[in-house]
Amino acid sequence: MTIHSDIRPAPAAKATLQVWRGESLLSRLIRQVILPLMGSKRVLRDIERHARQLRRQRLKGEAKPTRRVVRDCNITAREIAGSNVLFVEPKDGAVTRTIIYIHGGAYVANMMIHQWNLVEGLAMQNRARVVVPHYPLAPENDWQPAFAMMRTLYESLVAEVGAENIVLTGDSAGAGLALSFAQLLRDEGQPLPAKMVLYSPWLDLREDNPEQDAYDAADPMLARPVLVWSAKRWAGDTALNDPRISPVLGDIRDLPPMLVFSGTADLLHPDSLALFAKAQADGCDLKLIIGERMTHAWSVLETSEARRLHRETAAFLR
Fold first, then answer.
1. Whole-angstrom Cα distance, residue 38 to residue 30?
2. Is 107 exposed, middle or buried (0-12, 13-18, 19+ CB in 10 A)?
3. Burial code of 153-185, b = ≥16 C-beta within 10 A, e = fewer?
């Protein structure tokens, strides 16, 4: 199923949109065969079944770096504000910038093995030190401990390298947290990172957008029931329409330049379209790249489309 967006940027706006057409054989196999066989969509429709799976996943802890990352990168760990933070940088060559990568997982799941592919791409393609915070998760915590931890981490990095040498990135829920955190920094008059990159962002946790209905059948991975459950646990006593929870509902003016990736086989694609529409209306510096038939979190896969995504990210950050 292919869904085309009819949104195009106005000539005077700083927001731009690009559609990547075509689908590699591997991406098609993942979308049509592998992901359906894995059954994640069935699990995410069943809250009790998901809860059991989540408990098992959380007991295993954060996914360890892949062998390739261990081979090519130096990895050190620090405890910051009570949370484990990993620092990943290429073994050969000088590091030119610091990239904060906030992992996704609906705010309830540990970092998963495939997300190390994204960390590797960020580090190697950009000659960067990638900072990976294992932030406090729901349902044990709402959003506030994660924000506090991110504030401590960010302030330490600004003191070390300067905000102009920091890039803020994230995938899925991590991308939402990145945008919410940047809005908070702006509102408090804090120095902002140089740029931001959001991969398959989850930006509207109300999960009541009727436009999602058109993408549900095309998405082989995500389902609303567990997203709704996760959103309520992350929000806690805070309203779901609060921009700290649903950043697409907040003010996105005066933020760093943003690069956003989304796909038409992603239930959350309307969130990126809504962000683009807001950026277009407000004249924000944002580029949205839409991958036709790309699934949620295609940035963490080992496909030709993901490799192109890494090259585009590197060009944006130069």
1. 10
2. buried
3. bbeebbeeeebebbbbbbbbbbbbbbbbbbbbb
| Residue whose token pair is 């239930």 | 267
DSSP secondary structure, 233-285, as one string: HHHTTS-TTSTTTSGGGS--TTPPPEEEEEEEE-TTHHHHHHHHHHHHHHT--
Residue 184 identity:
L
What does the block give as tokens for 110?
Answer: 């540990």
Q: Are 271 and 203 in contact (CB under 8 A)?
A: yes
**What tokens were used for 140?**
């044990």
Other C-beta atoms lying within 10 Å of the C-beta of residue 73? 22
What whole-number distance in Å separates Cα of residue 233 and Cα of residue 253?
Answer: 28
pLDDT of residue 93: 79
Rounded Cα–Cα distance for residues 172 and 199 (Å): 6
209 within 8 A of 215, measured Cβ to Cβ: no
What is the phi/psi pair of residue 89, to 5°? -145, 150
In degrees and rounded to multiples of 5, residue 124 shows phi and psi of -80, -40
Q: Where are the domains of the chain?
A: 17-317
Write down the architecture of domain 17-317 according to CATH.
3-Layer(aba) Sandwich (3.40)
Amino acid at 266: D
pTM of the shown model:
0.94
Task: Tell me 221's DSSP state.
Answer: S
Look-up: residue for tokens 């996943």?
A: 57
**Whole-angstrom distance, CA of residue 97 vs CA of residue 94:** 9
Encode pLDDT of 166-207 as tens digits: 999 999 999 999 999 999 999 999 999 999 999 999 999 999
Whether the Cβ atoms of residue 180 and residue 244 lie closer than 8 Å to each other = yes
